[in-house]
Specification:
Layout lengths: L1 H4 L17 H18 L26 H15 L10 H7 L4 H11 L7 E6 L6 E5 L5
Helix pairs in contact: 2-5, 3-4
């Protein structure tokens, strides 16, 4: 919110949380959000927040799984290319073994961005405590 406040002041917040529904359902929810914003003639800012894998290091709080670094590498590739539909190709089993916690948030964001031409910019990536953290900005959207 700090960064949004650097550019905007008079706005309303709608918080959307993930659920136990499928990745496809979250993607569709994002598409519905975009459709609603379009029908209302509203500009929106999107914050798709969540960690990547929590299983990057043996000494981390969740231990290590080879799926952890694999997930982080794949997600950074998909997000970096802006090919958000590929988020639906990740299986629930793979994501669970990787110990991710942001995939549903990312797929909702992907649904909102569906069909738009975007140019993502990776600002950072790190996994200092066994959990992957990435910062990605999609300039010019909204």
């Amino acid at each position: 919110m700090y960064f949004i406040n650097q550019f905007y002041r008079d706005y309303k917040i709608v918080r959307v949380g993930g659920s136990g529904l499928s990745f496809e359902d979250h993607y569709r929810a994002g598409q519905i959000i975009a459709e609603a914003a379009g029908a209302l003639g509203r500009r929106i800012a999107i914050v798709g927040s969540g960690d990547l894998s929590h299983k990057l290091k043996t000494e981390g709080p969740y231990g290590y799984s080879p799926r952890g670094p694999e997930y982080d590498k794949r997600i950074m590739d998909v997000m970096g290319r802006g090919d958000f539909g590929e988020l639906l190709e990740f299986t629930e089993d793979f994501c669970e073994k990787a110990g991710e916690c942001g995939h549903r948030s990312f797929t909702t964001m992907a649904g909102i961005l569906d069909g738009l031409s975007v140019k993502p910019e990776q600002l950072s990536y790190e996994g200092p405590f066994g959990g992957g953290i990435r910062n990605l900005r999609i300039p010019g959207y909204g």
